[in-house]
Amino acid sequence: MINRNGSAVWKGSIKEGNGVVSTETGTLSNAQYSFSSRFESGTGTNPEELLGAAHAACFSMALSGVLTRGGLIPDTISTTAMVTVENIDGGFKITKVRLSTEGVIPNATDAQFQEAAATAKANCPVSKLFTGAEITLDAKLVSAVGA
To answer: Both 81 and 31 in a single domain?
Structure first.
């Protein structure tokens, strides 16, 4: 079993207040978040971009694992996860996550890359958190066979 900790402190009302988020490793330490950084374009982070970063990281590692087990060692996997939040029936819900990934994988065919990406998407632990959300995947192999 693996346990990891993140923490947050919020002070004040929803619109005028603000908070900080931190991780146990210190990678994030009192990173600011607020109503404006979440719902407008204010300074700081927000839960959705943190979830997007976590999903992109988890998916990239999962894809590397699938490829490696298949005998293909990635040079680079670059992934972005766009998290969509919608107000549905008076409450906010994550409705979509769009994974976009590019891989430089020597000796891989596009078919191998697409199959590995689909497997990684289905088995990434963070993907499994988004129950009820539509997760789409755009996977692009950048290198050619024998590159």
So the answer is: no
| Nearest CA among 142, 128, 119 for reference residue 54 | 128
For 89-140, write each residue's pLDDT tens digit.
Answer: 999 999 999 999 999 999 999 999 999 999 999 999 999 999 889 999 999 9
pLDDT tens for each residue of 27-49 = 999 999 999 999 898 899 999 99
Residues 27 and 55 in one domain: no
64 and 19 in a single domain? The answer is no
CA distance 103 to 75: 8
**CA angle at 11 for the pair 9 and 14, rounded to the nearest 5°:** 110
Alpha helices in the chain (DSSP H): 35-39, 47-69, 110-123, 125-129
> Tokens 């997007």 appear where?
52
